[in-house]
Amino acid sequence: GESVGLHLPTLSVQEGDNSIINCAYSNSASDYFIWYKQESGKGPQFIIDIRSNMDKRQGQRVTVLLNKTVKHLSLQIAATQPGDSAVYFCAAERGGADGLTFGKGTHLIIQP
Amino acid sequence: DAGVIQSPRHEVTEMGQEVTLRCKPISGHNSLFWYRQTMMRGLELLIYFNNNVPIDDSGMPEDRFSAKMPNASFSTLKIQPSEPRDSAVYFCASSLGQNEAFFGQGTRLTVV
């Protein structure tokens, strides 16, 4: 089966700095990856996704990098803002819509 | 669209009672997922449906748990009888094919 893990349970960054959250997955057959943001009392919210035929994808202030060789995924948030404070989850899926396997989450804390 | 709608938002019940959680997926989505979130185990996939058919229920913890999807716009997750260790936040999510899954706000279940 798939297992997905994050390297750090907590990441503290200064407001305005860039944040990098890392994730590793185990199943080389995984072909779809998503980063979610979860704020307190809410459900996970989609941030950005990437498919296995790409190694980089950019959104608004966020970039996802995929290294299939070492089965590693990262989320970069540029110019971190207080509103970015949340728990971030990476998730992986193998094949068509068979359910995402989630990592444990990294709590991003923004220091003023 | 109002997004994925779950009810109730909070449920407190006594051990041994039956609990039914409800979900209305986003219109047009053909996959529906039930997840459970706890501090210890993170987000776990319990079961998912594709075109109203259960595809994989290997994540359902015990026979006390059952899920149904009688039509494309409604699903239930039932626990009978409930136990204190079932206390968690239960999320429903839906997607269209292998694309991002959209999550509801969750049901916080407390079994006393």
What can you see in these coordinates?
The complex is a heterodimer of chains A (112) and B (112). Chain A is mainly β and 112 residues long. Helix content of chain A is 0%, strand content 56%. Chain A is built from no helices and eleven strands. Chain A has strands at residues 4-6, 10-14, 19-25, 30-38, 45-51, 56-58, 62-67, 72-77, 86-94, 101-102, 106-111. In chain A, the strands form two sheets. In chain A, strands 2, 4, 5, 9, 10 and 11 form a six-stranded mixed β-sheet that branches. Chain A has a five-stranded antiparallel β-sheet with strand order 1-3-8-7-6, with no helix packed on it. In chain A, strand 7 (62-67) and strand 8 (72-77) form a beta hairpin. Chain A is globular and about 40 Å long. With 112 residues, chain B is mainly β. Chain B is built from no helices and eleven strands. In chain B, strands 2, 4, 5, 6, 9, 10 and 11 form a seven-stranded mixed β-sheet that branches. A four-stranded antiparallel β-sheet of chain B has the order 1-3-8-7, with no helix packed on it. The radius of gyration of chain B is 13 Å and the shape is globular. The relative contact order of chain B is 0.34. The chains are: A mainly beta (112), B mainly beta (112). Chain A binds chain B through residues 32, 34, 36, 42-46, 49, 89, 93, 95-105, and chain B through 4, 30-31, 33, 35, 42-45, 48, 50, 55-56, 59, 91, 93, 95, 97-106.
